[in-house]
Amino acid sequence: MSKIKIGFSALLTLIMLSMFAALASAEGNFTPTPSNPAPGINVGTIDNSGQVNQHKTHGNFQNNTNSCANCHSTHNGDDSRLLKFKNAEYDMCLSCHDGTMGFYNVQTASGAGIFSESHESESMHNVSSGIINGKAPGAYLNKDTNELECSSCHNPHGSVNDRLLKENVIGSVPFAYGTVNGVKVPVQNGVKTINLSLSDDPDFAAINASTTNSGLKITKSIGPKDSQDKINYSQFCAACHDDYAASRTAGRPSNAGKTAGNTNHDFLYTHTSNSSSQGRNCAACHYAHGTDITTLMDTAGKTIDDLKKPVAQGGKGWSDAVAKDYMKDVSVGGSSNKKFTNMAVCWSCHQSTHKIDTPVVPGGDYSGKNKIR
């Protein structure tokens, strides 16, 4: 009888261990698929025409969608929008975009930068930290009192932009002025479509090649696609940072007759940030999400990972400590979401066109300009 009890106990133990192992495997080694892009995020497989075709998690919902329940709880929501998380937006978005869903992980480097926890030379758009949109650096006419959230820039239900960027940004105000038929008129910022320069992500070649995913493509982006998109992107940022995109001569005393609302700028000149020319739009110098020691570059466009590579592979063979000390941003104002450490972004562009009197530093490399669009 005791042998039987031991047998049952051993069997139960094995079953429990296998269950825990399965759970651990599911959490630690989860492989996303179109029908289950993240643990617990399930997408239907039959479309409205009866065909096998996975639905998109954001937007393009089928008549039989399950996507609403991925984020909302009908009876037990933790806020007025029935979201499942108490710290609603950020926790909700990070429940997938923290790496548990392998498609777009905002905590790893991408064309948008990074939401980092490294605490070294980091700066970012601190969503869900209580920051008010109208308090953004360079906010001039923007008096928006809403808090900065993921949805300040993105529409979680879908948009015409591949990264769900809004066409009407929270905090949008007219600040700049254009000319229509000889008449000066205000231009509304953050209300235009931004096309991005996208390429298929080779890490998800199998999913991209699938014919049963409603046209879903997992892509990489290097920023705005064409000239007009660069301008639209800058105007998108200027919805909150409106002063930074003002005319470079907006504050000149000789500018008599300026339209009301654009007369109190206290600068004489500003670096152009609303142009399609290389290096003259917000996305040329800054990341949208943020930056840290791992994403910052020097004038050669090198990151700490590049510098740690052997000389034979184009690196310097430096240790991690040396590479980080070299790349650390020591600017008084912080790294300010910049792509390049310190003010190296300026030197990357201007070293070749504005020579200084001293010789070029031996070993200096200013090819980082190729990283600026």
TrEMBL record:
InterPro entries associated with the record: Multihaem_cyt_sf (IPR036280), Multiheme_Cytochr_ET (IPR051829), Paired_CXXCH_1 (IPR010177)
Highest taxon of source: Bacteria
Molecular function as annotated in GO: oxidoreductase activity
Gene3D superfamilies reported in the protein's UniProt record: Flavocytochrome C3, Chain A
Doubled CXXCH motif domain location: 61-101, 148-168
Annotated signal peptide: 1-24
A Pfam entry, by short name: Paired_CXXCH_1
Protein's UniProt keywords contain Hydrolase: no
Keywords assigned: Signal
Protein name: Doubled CXXCH domain-containing protein
Record organism: Neobacillus bataviensis LMG 21833
